[in-house]
What we know:
The chain has six helices and five strands. With about 120 residues, the chain is an alpha/beta fold.
Amino acid sequence: MKIALIAHDKKKDLMIEFTKKHRDYFEKHELYATGTTGQLIIDHTQLNVHRFKSGPLGGDQQIGALISEELMDLVLFFRDPLTAQPHEPDVSALIRLCDVYNVPLATNIGTANYLIEYLNAR
């Protein structure tokens, strides 16, 4: 599977802990991430991650392009719903693309855990 990992600033620590917890699962798949999130995942897990630009600099759009080309299987996007994001239109577009192309999307840790545990059991 091709899996995108994205996290807003206040959710990056949560993404790191999540990828550490599920490292065995993630190492079997192709991982993609926005810039800073990807580097943090690499630094803390040594997983191989293809990094795009940071979200506000177009990373969300780069992942969206893969979704529109039907080249992404799963998106895990830990959003911070309580902080205004300067690139909110890009975030909305990414979520919309997941819906258009039927790509499973988790925007919080509860859904992400459920999806990974379900997929890992298959």
